[in-house]
Amino acid sequence: LDGAFKINIDHHHSNSPYADINWIDPAAPAVGEMVFDLRHALGIRPTPEIAENLYCAIASDTGSFQFSNTTPRALAAATELARLGANPTGVAEKLYFNNSPEKILLLGRVLTTLTMNGRGTIAIISMFKSDTEALRLKEVDTEDMTTLARSIKGVEMVMFFKEMAPETFRVSLRSKGNANAALVAEHFGGGGHIHASGFTVYGPYERLIREIPATVEGLLD
């Protein structure tokens, strides 16, 4: 892309403006909503296919309209996109009811690693390359595996350790309430949203699984 005119549209507050035009709106729940507003300003009427893609972006970034970023603005955009041809039932089928047997087997393995901090506010789960390789899955197949751990009563944050290479772990954070996942991720050199962020750490798993959650607990106090 060297020499190309670049436009950067994002809603992550950690985004570094790098393009010729940068539109960064951390208050927007999804880039899909920002593009929805942009097409309105340009006077463009989306086709049903475009409407469904934008609806999908908003639905996925708001956790199917369950997360705290589900604003009246997001709901209004989703309603208008449904009027323009988006199929909410079809989107839900593709996003949430389209799992393979291998993914469910992997979820079972991940849940067996569940541990909690002493106060029951942090849930920690882990996944290893041997599991994904045995089931022929990729990291993208694990994006929603924090959902069950996040549903535990009293849990404010879920930490999902994913082995990417020997002694290399990507840690996905999902939080609720006042627990700021973005603040935690930035402490470790990562970034993201208030309730969905991540970072990468290096070292032996046994040490990381002991030290990182303890540090996170201190950051949340």
Task: Give a concise summary.
The chain has helices at 31-42, 48-61, 72-83, 88-96, 101-111, 129-135, 147-150, 181-187, 205-220; strands spanning 7-10, 21-24, 115-116, 122-127, 157-165, 168-175, 191-192, 196-202. It is of the alpha/beta class.
Description:
There is one protein chain. The chain has 221 residues and is of the alpha/beta class. The protein has two domains: 7-95, inorganic pyrophosphatase (n-terminal core) (Alpha-Beta Complex), CATH 3.90.1640.10; 101-220, Diaminopimelate Epimerase, Chain A, domain 1 (Roll). The chain is built from nine helices and eight strands. It has helices spanning 31-42, 48-61, 72-83, 88-96, 101-111, 129-135, 147-150, 181-187, 205-220, and strands at 7-10, 21-24, 115-116, 122-127, 157-165, 168-175, 191-192, 196-202. The strands form two sheets. The protein has a six-stranded mixed beta sheet, with helices on both faces. It has a two-stranded parallel sheet with strand order 1-2. A hairpin with a 5-residue loop joins strand 3 and strand 4. Helix 2 packs antiparallel against helix 3. The longest helix has 16 residues, at 205-220.
